[in-house]
Amino acid sequence: MDLDAFFASELEQHADVLALTRAATREPFVRLVRAAVASVRGGGKLMFFGNGGSAADAQHLATELAVRYVKDRAPIAAVALTTDSSALTAIANDMGVEPMFARQVRALGRRGDLAIGISTSGTSPNVIQGLEAARDMGLVAAGLTGQSGGKMLGLCDPLIRVPSTVTARIQEMHITLGQMLCGALERELGLV
Asked: Whole-angstrom Cα distance, residue 73 to residue 51?
């Protein structure tokens, strides 16, 4: 393996997807920030969820908001539905894996909350069910996904679709956009 060529190729692919993401996601990103601001100002919370690397992103972003992103400031109500091991294992054992986020959305969600599902494919059944539960309850159902949008198309509004089919590149853009959401939310709420 030519590690120099691999190194260069990965960074070139990242740069290409970054440029495409910049062009394709500005408008839905602005709408996501506005939805988050409206939720928090209205006394609501942000609920993040996803599987695997997207679960890690959900936890990361909820923590940035609840604790701090740039500076010490008032906490922003945010939770990752991927972190309660007792709830997750009970739901998976008793009901199956597919309702694990929907069940928590129904238990914790309130009108005015923002549910943000993260799925690189847009087809993860448990993420889709969580978003459907959010929409059925009158919450804003938003999403981060890849190029096709999968089943998140028509379900999420806003929906940020990273213009790539490569999981690693999609995940790189998701965490970048997620951290941008944290920074923008702090600023829009006047917390920094």
From this structure: 29
- Per residue in 14-66, pLDDT (tens digit) is 999 999 999 999 999 999 999 999 999 999 999 999 999 999 999 999 999 99
Q: What band does 192 get if pLDDT is binned at 50, 70 and 90?
A: confident
Which among 22, 18, 29, 50 is positioned nearest to 185, based on CA atoms? 29
Question: CA–CA separation, 140 vs 149, rounded Å?
Answer: 17
Q: What is the dihedral of CA 96, 99, 100, 103, to 10 degrees?
A: -130
> Within 10 A of 104 (CB to CB), how many other CB atoms are there?
22
Best CA proximity match to 97, nearest among 36, 49, 35: 49
Print the SS3 string covering 144-160: EECCCCHHHCCCCCCEE
Would you list the DSSP string of the chain? --HHHHHHHHHHHHHHHHHHHHHHHHHHHHHHHHHHHHHHHTT--EEEEESTHHHHHHHHHHHHHHT-SSS------EEETT--HHHHHHHHHHT-STTHHHHHHHHH--TT-EEEEE-SSS--HHHHHHHHHHHHTT-EEEEEE-TT-GGGTTT-SSEEE-S-S-HHHHHHHHHHHHHHHHHHHHHHTT--
